[in-house]
């Protein structure tokens, strides 16, 4: 649903109409505060043990509980009386909770339009109330996590949340055990799902662009500020990277995309009354810090030789420039496991349980292969492996800073998940990526458990 009409003034004297909260407008007060009270505190409620030690499984928010058509109609009627960021923010959250991705994108775009068209007149004019309404678009529990649960492949029911569970990046919940990441990426590239995937990608692009416009508009206000939108920007970037793994023609949105540059020009034409000081502030790097979507997208890894070469390149860079990084240790371990059998990976990563490893051949048959036998078979199979010398690794990736590392690691992860799904390398590299930017205190907290947990 387009909200272009929101850019039209309600009247010449009061282009944004009255502040419905300040005037104690009954329809606004009755609806708005009740609707806000229905916002969930968390998207997923973990399971608990009942009074009889019965386990009550966790529960995810049900999008069907949001009557999206009714909510949209009510908010639209109120917006016709008053141009109010609180109402638009509420609408955006309602739509993403209802798993209505395009409606969510339209609501976020409407907020960008209002801030650009009526920067100092749109309600609420109180700086604290205005910032709160805008910051809600970056709410992790109500916006970012629901985005992860939205289906992006039509009837295939592919979500980023399921992908995280399938790849071991998040603990699987009930109904998420046994998911296959390869199946998900295949569904994303399936011609039958192309329209749904392209629509989801376009809506995410629209949202990312609108969020950037919102940040830029906030920095041009008389009292400029940078809204907290990071969790939502990251969720969008993560989902778009997943799409790009299967659809290389659908690139993640970035600050320097042609559409973003065109929007910047358009915003500049609307902001001709901006003072030189405001323009200088909005030009500062901190004003529009690059979002996660702006990371360079690394090229696909074609074969194991290219993966090994990329790991060697990253390892050499980090050993030279960031020898204290815990990511370096994980990248080195990943390199050492390239081409190695499963039993070696288990001995390396699960040393306390390695001797208990076994493969049973049918429940109740008694047929079993224990670790000693598995190691012998791994050695036998290894002797038949072909050399990688015949594989063309191509040119090594260019690593000149930490910014270049994460996209290359993501490409290596994608290669092993697709070509060698039993490999632990993607798990190691994902963890390496999460540690790349952490400082010493955060790193120690991650690596050393508290005394009472030892």
TrEMBL record:
It comes from the Bacteria. Residues 170-195, 247-296 are annotated as: Disordered. Residues 283-296 have a biased composition (Low complexity). Signal peptide: none annotated. Pfam families: ImpA_N. The lineage of its organism: Bacteria, Pseudomonadati, Pseudomonadota, Alphaproteobacteria, Rhodobacterales. InterPro entries: ImpA_N (IPR010657), TssA-like (IPR017740). Residues 8-136 form the ImpA N-terminal domain. This is Type VI secretion system protein ImpA. Residues 182-193 have a biased composition (Polar residues). It comes from Cognatiyoonia koreensis.
């Amino acid at each position: 649903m387009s909200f272009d009409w929101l850019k039209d003034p309600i009247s010449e004297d009061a282009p944004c109409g009255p502040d419905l909260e300040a005037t104690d407008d009954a329809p606004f007060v009755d609806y708005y505060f009740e609707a806000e009270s229905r916002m969930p505190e968390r998207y997923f409620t973990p399971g608990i043990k009942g009074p009889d030690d019965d386990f009550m499984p966790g529960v995810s928010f049900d999008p069907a509980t949001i009557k999206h058509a009714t909510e949209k109609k009510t908010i639209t009627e109120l917006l016709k009386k008053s141009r109010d960021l609180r109402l638009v923010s509420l609408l955006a959250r309602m739509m993403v909770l209802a798993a209505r991705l395009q409606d969510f994108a339209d609501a976020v775009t409407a907020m960008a339009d209002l801030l650009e068209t009526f920067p100092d007149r749109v309600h609420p004019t109180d700086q604290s109330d205005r910032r709160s309404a805008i910051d809600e678009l970056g709410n992790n529990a109500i916006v970012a996590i629901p985005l992860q649960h939205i289906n992006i492949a039509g009837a295939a029911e592919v979500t980023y949340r399921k992908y995280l569970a399938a790849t071991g990046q998040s603990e699987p919940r009930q109904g998420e055990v046994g998911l296959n990441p390869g199946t998900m990426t295949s569904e994303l590239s399936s011609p039958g799902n192309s329209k749904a995937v392209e629509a989801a990608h376009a809506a995410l692009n629209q949202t990312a662009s609108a969020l950037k416009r919102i940040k830029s508009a906030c920095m041009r206000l008389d009292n400029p500020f940078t809204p907290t939108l990071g969790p939502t920007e990251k969720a969008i970037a993560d989902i778009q990277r997943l799409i790009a793994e299967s659809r290389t023609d659908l690139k993640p949105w970035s600050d320097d995309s042609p559409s973003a540059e065109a929007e910047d020009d358009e915003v500049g034409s609307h902001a001709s009354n901006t003072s030189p000081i405001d323009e200088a502030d909005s030009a500062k790097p901190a004003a529009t810090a690059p979002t996660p979507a702006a990371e360079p997208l690394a090229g696909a890894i074609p074969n194991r030789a290219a993966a090994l070469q990329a790991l060697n390149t990253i390892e050499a860079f980090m050993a030279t420039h960031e020898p204290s990084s815990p990511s370096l240790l994980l990248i080195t371990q990943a390199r050492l496991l390239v081409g190695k059998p499963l039993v070696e990976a288990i001995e390396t990563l699960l040393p306390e349980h390695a001797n208990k490893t076994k493969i049973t051949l049918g429940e109740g048959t008694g047929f079993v292969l224990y670790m000693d036998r598995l190691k012998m078979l791994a050695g036998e199979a290894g002797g038949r492996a072909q050399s990688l010398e015949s594989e063309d690794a191509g040119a090594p990736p260019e690593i000149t800073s930490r910014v270049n590392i994460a996209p290359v690691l993501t490409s290596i992860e994608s290669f092993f998940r697709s070509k060698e799904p039993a490999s632990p390398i993607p798990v190691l590299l994902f963890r390496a990526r999460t540690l790349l930017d952490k400082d010493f205190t955060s790193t120690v907290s991650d690596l050393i458990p508290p005394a009472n947990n030892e």
